[in-house]
Specification:
The protein has 266 residues and is an alpha/beta fold. The protein has ten helices and seven strands. The longest helix is centred in the first third of the chain and has 16 residues. It is globular, with a radius of gyration of 18 Å.
Length: 266
């Protein structure tokens, strides 16, 4: 089951890597599920005024701005999990400077190709992108001062394994800052079972308290939610999966979908 979910995500994000940000914005949750021609930048934050921003690396796929809250310092080694085309990695690089190092990890080959092309165009020598699975990330222990991630860990089937591996890779006293999607209340079955909704960062999301509990269980301390915002899925998206009656019931219920930016220390 976990491998099937990974294959779904890998396939979808290889597809997305070949599209422009504008194409991604006209489809649900940054995927290509045919949600019409409207602009559905439902989750992403605006990076355009952020230092280090590279337009070519911005595919509009995030759900926060983790570097804003990550307390990155000059000279740090930063790992970006699910680095995509390099958007957050290049922002992090603008903070760590020439004396720091940024490593992006992704398992989608087309994304890695795009990121490597972007770093070659920018001429950075201290940013690299490597292929790997977050649950089995190919790094030595105690490597990173900071780990960042933007709307990716909710796509990882075994989140306990992912956070445990993060704890190993971060240096003692280091920390992570990730933006992710979490839930309050239960999603309708039609959304939970849909592969597109999984790849779109919705159906694979955990309850907020469960998500935070996994972080604590992995050994992290000083767990803080630095930012939280509600995500409203437009009716045009929901109606692809729910009947009129189901849609009305969902909107009248108490289920919430939230982007949270979480900070925690090893």
């Amino acid at each position: 089951m976990n491998e099937r979910l990974k294959d779904v995500v890998r396939s979808k994000y290889n597809e997305i890597a070949l599209q422009s940000k504008e194409q991604n914005q006209s489809s649900c949750c940054g995927s290509t599920c045919g949600c019409g021609d409207m602009d559905y930048t439902i989750m992403s934050d605006d990076y355009t005024e952020v230092k280090g921003y590279s337009k070519d690396a911005d595919l509009g796929l995030g759900c926060g701005l983790p570097t804003e809250h990550a307390e990155i310092s000059e000279g740090d080694t930063v790992i970006d999990l699910g680095s995509g085309a390099g958007n957050d990695a290049f922002v992090a690089r603008s903070i760590v400077g020439e004396s720091g190092r940024v490593i992006g990890l992704d398992f989608a080959g087309a994304m890695l190709t795009k990121a490597k092309n972007n770093v070659a165009k920018l001429g950075f020598t201290n940013v690299e992108f490597v292929k790997g699975d977050i649950e089995e990330m190919p790094f030595e222990n105690d490597l990173a001062d900071v780990i960042i991630s933007n709307c990716v860990l909710n796509l990882v089937p075994d989140k306990e394994k992912a956070f445990s591996r993060m704890h190993s890779v971060i240096k003692p006293g280091g920390h992570f800052c990730v933006s992710d999607i979490v839930l309050s209340g239960d999603l309708p079955d039609a959304l939970i079972k849909d592969a597109e909704m999984y790849a779109g960062c919705v159906s694979g999301s955990l309850q907020k308290e469960e998500y935070l509990g996994i972080i604590e269980k992995s050994g992290f301390k000083n767990i803080q939610i630095r930012k939280e915002k509600e995500i409203i899925l437009p009716d045009e998206i929901l109606s692809k999966y729910l009947s009129k009656e189901e849609l009305a019931e969902f909107k009248a219920g108490d289920t919430g979908i939230y982007s949270i930016t979480v900070f925690a220390v090893k």
